[in-house]
């Protein structure tokens, strides 16, 4: 591809896809024929440049419609947004979900990452190669390719099929949550946001039966019935939208010269809801089911409900997972009937400073991996004098073995909408971005739907709950880049730049998205704010330990009997969690547990009494990270697992800084050389690994490089992987009830 504008033209389909996302070009300078007048002077250039943040949605639009991004299409997108083609190419080539060379419209992503590898992904890919040819081919109009973790680890081995250019995912296998929920005639859509607190509190008259999957009554929908069951778009782009400067605060924001107008593009961006593609998730996959899904994803059977990923679903005592399986994820009234929006009402009663006080007193600590106190982050953001503040919800969830945020978004989407509204209120933001992993089609649909319904009912928009506070949420879909989960890389990704982390300081609370003070929080972190406000800080903090308050979600996967998301109070031991999940299968022996994901650390079977707290895991030289608990039994070849971790970091390094760019490659090479060696034969490479690991840890710009050696180091030092025998593995400890010994059911 030539990195300058060429004569390549978009096809009609590509042009239509881009125009559907960006609107039709208004002047010839934006990619159409120029008039004689336009050849003398330029109009619209500044406006187009200010829409740079539409680059990623526009690339998605083409990729979704056609399956790949041609030179003509990229040129057209770049002209429309006045982005130099070299930069457009740099962005498009950054993301794994985009292709810049022709490929079939149907692509099957087959996970070969840690949990799937432990559950037979090698056999699956071998069988697929026989059926469909080698990976990367195009047999039968399908391309299949290995993929990093798809966030479906409880269903390992898992695969995701995507078909570009077909009717949207809602067109098939639709469950209730994918449809617009019927509007109660007593509470019609309220686009002007005049629903008051009493309205919300008092209208939860009908307690719905538990999560329904039956047909949805479409009478009373606010928009024209859409045969594809799409979310109605009333209120998405209409005059009631807060970008229409309905609130004084929003108007002030827009007047700010440094603020790109693109930041105020319609919320619930087009790409979240109108993308023309089909998806199918398969798991546990066989070659046959994966092939079937790849050939006809639009006709694939419906996925199991989110509650299927929660073995505790429906049990008493759950806090964050309490509604999963009980609430209809499509139905706002059902959410309200189950306590929804009481936390937001309390937030309005407390005021922003009062909310931050509660969160500080509750001791809430971020669940995205860095364990930073949420109240302090909010306080720092709220206290900045600049007028425009932003909230970003980090739903990128790409740490191998992590899937809790997906389950929360699929099973209880309004909870996140409510929590984001509270967070926005506390930090003084009028706009929140939900940066959602591109490989999460169902979470995307459900969040887009929930945001649309909340907006239609005045729970988002220019006057939330009639309290004079303007807030709206825009979804931004990631496109397959683990690094975009790093909080500053998200900013670059949203702004239409390559998703490379920024140097800190300045920290996001000072200069974040669009250079403005920004609070970035993980999905699970935000959802914790609801029980804090509903029950009060003291009640919340009475659960857990002094430094780790509340409950924690754990993503249990690998060779385990009952994989899934578990909720436990902080302070429970790893042993309790392993027992709850049934331990390793009958006749197997636990060999190691990876805590915290690829960036985490291995622990031995004789270390199961580690308390699952931030301080407890730290003291044990491990980390909770994003809540990954990957069990590996004695059938798993640990050197192969380490190699996979190293490959992951090599692939996902953004390449911006030398220690990480070079170090992750050297690490992978060394692990490759010693994959079948132990003792003296491996010693030279282990010494090299230590040297490279120290350089990455000390000198990398961001957490990816800083943690890329953690798991490997722990496997060498704690598990003695290359030493021969595994310390602590010993003979089976085994009473029949020992989870280490495959006896617990
Ligand atoms: C390479 C890398 C990937 C990350 N991925 C995620 C992610 O997918 N989700 C997330 O919430 N945090 C992720 N983080 C952590 C974020 O940078 C940030 O700390 C977090 O979103 C802050 O939210 P919290 O305070 O609520 O935890 C990642 C960090 C790094 C270094
Ligand atoms: S540490 Fe790695 S991922 Fe992070 S900025 Fe440097 S090269 Fe990029
Ligand atoms: S989906 Fe395969 S490891 Fe997560």
UniProtKB/TrEMBL annotation:
InterPro entries: NADH-UbQ_OxRdtase_51kDa_CS, Nuo51_FMN-bd, Nuo51_FMN-bd_sf, NuoE_N, Nuop51_4Fe4S-bd, Nuop51_4Fe4S-bd_sf, Soluble_ligand-bd, Thioredoxin-like_sf
Segments for region (Disordered): 166-270
Biased composition range(s): Low complexity: 176-189, 244-270
Family matches, as PROSITE patterns: COMPLEX1_51K_2
Highest rank taxon of the organism: Bacteria
Domain NADH-ubiquinone oxidoreductase 51kDa subunit iron-sulphur binding residue range list: 639-686
Pfam families recorded: 2Fe-2S_thioredx, Complex1_51K, NADH_4Fe-4S, SLBB
GO molecular function: 4 iron, 4 sulfur cluster binding; FMN binding; metal ion binding; NADH dehydrogenase (ubiquinone) activity
Family affiliation: Belongs to the complex I 51 kDa subunit family.
The name this protein goes by in its record: NADH-quinone oxidoreductase subunit F
